[in-house]
Specification:
Helices cover 0% and strands 56% of the residues. It is mostly beta strands and 121 residues long. Strands 2, 4, 5, 6, 9, 10 and 11 form a 7-stranded mixed sheet that branches. Strand 7 and strand 8 form a beta hairpin.
Length: 121
């Protein structure tokens, strides 16, 4: 079982980026899946979840209305659409299944390797 993120890179403030997460060895649509990010100098931050039923919930106020989590069941892919990005969105972005995070530190679950997003002018 594996998760592989892609799509990160350098983007200007106000720009958009779509991150992808390819799941293998299991069917992500049958499970709740999560996007996290790690901002430099801070612990892991839970951005939001997409439930097995397709509903989404977001936990970071600063991304509400700008970020959208979605899924392609046929391709077993998870996405994070990032619009109107800001400098403070710079960090490493992870998708995860059954994440265990305490005090901003990863303790368990299945995680991808992460993809770097850098917002810079």
């Amino acid at each position: 079982e594996q998760l592989v993120e892609s799509g990160g890179g350098l983007v200007q403030p106000g720009g958009s980026l779509r991150l992808s997460c390819a799941a293998s060895g299991f069917t992500c649509s049958r499970l709740d899946m999560t996007w996290f990010r790690q901002i430099p100098g801070k612990g892991l931050e839970r951005i939001g979840d997409i439930m097995s039923g397709g509903s989404t919930v977001y936990f970071v106020d600063s991304v509400k209305g700008r970020f959208t989590i979605s899924r392609n069941n046929a391709e077993n892919m998870l996405y994070l659409q990032m619009n109107n990005v800001k400098f403070e969105d710079t960090g490493v972005y992870y998708c995860a299944r059954d994440p265990a995070v305490v005090g901003g530190m990863r303790l368990g679950g299945l995680w991808g390797q992460g993809t770097q997003v850098t917002v810079s002018s």
